[in-house]
Design a protein that fits this description.
By secondary structure, this protein is α+β, with helices and mostly antiparallel strands. It is about 30% helix and about 20% strand. The mean pLDDT is about 90.
Length: about 180
């Protein structure tokens, strides 16, 4: 089987397009009626994701709560839109320092990713999809990407790492396991 490599546009060039397209989608009443999460690809096409299970939202909330508990400065965002070289992707949860949050200003999505981007695994996620999102978040400026398994196990990644770190560098008190009922 041949390997296919896609060359994505430079992030800076993609950003202005992403901002325009995301603002259009946010203002579109038809898109507001879609069930499930909406993201875009680098061409601005809508990517629909299946609606989340209740446990997914519980995990997002618990992660957000713990982030806010341990990192009292900055912003915690759930369903966080981030401009990437492959369109706008939406992290399940994120934490942005006051400086990074201020950079966003009134933009409809983060031009530079929050320092921590979190993906909560859903039944429909593939390993390749999660690896691509991790690479896109790091390329967009994330300092850490966390993955929460369906059982609540947390994995903490830093740019260039292939194996998870033992703890988060930014939030070392964050537990390795969150409570998922």
């Amino acid at each position: 089987m041949a390997t296919l490599t896609l060359e994505l546009p430079p992030l800076k060039r993609q950003t202005s397009f992403n901002l325009r397209r995301w603002a259009e989608l946010c203002a579109d009443p038809e898109v507001a009626n879609f069930e499930g999460r909406v993201e875009t690809d680098r061409h601005g096409h809508i990517i629909m994701n299946p609606p989340a299970e209740a446990a997914h939202g519980e995990s997002q909330f618990e992660i957000g709560y713990l982030l806010r508990t341990f990192l009292t400065r900055g912003r915690v965002i759930v369903e966080c839109p981030i401009s990437t070289a492959d369109g706008v992707k939406v992290a399940d949860a994120a934490w942005a320092s006051p400086e990074r949050a201020k950079e966003r200003g009134s933009q409809p999505c983060f031009v530079r990713a929050p320092e921590i981007c979190v993906e909560v695994i859903s039944p429909s996620n593939t390993k390749a999809e999660i690896q691509e999102k991790m690479a896109l978040y790091f390329d967009a400026g994330a300092k850490e990407v966390w993955i929460c398994s369906r059982t609540g196990n947390m994995s903490f990644y830093t740019p260039g790492s292939t194996a998870p770190a033992r703890t988060s560098v930014i939030c070392p008190r964050f537990p390795k396991q969150i409570t998922v009922e």
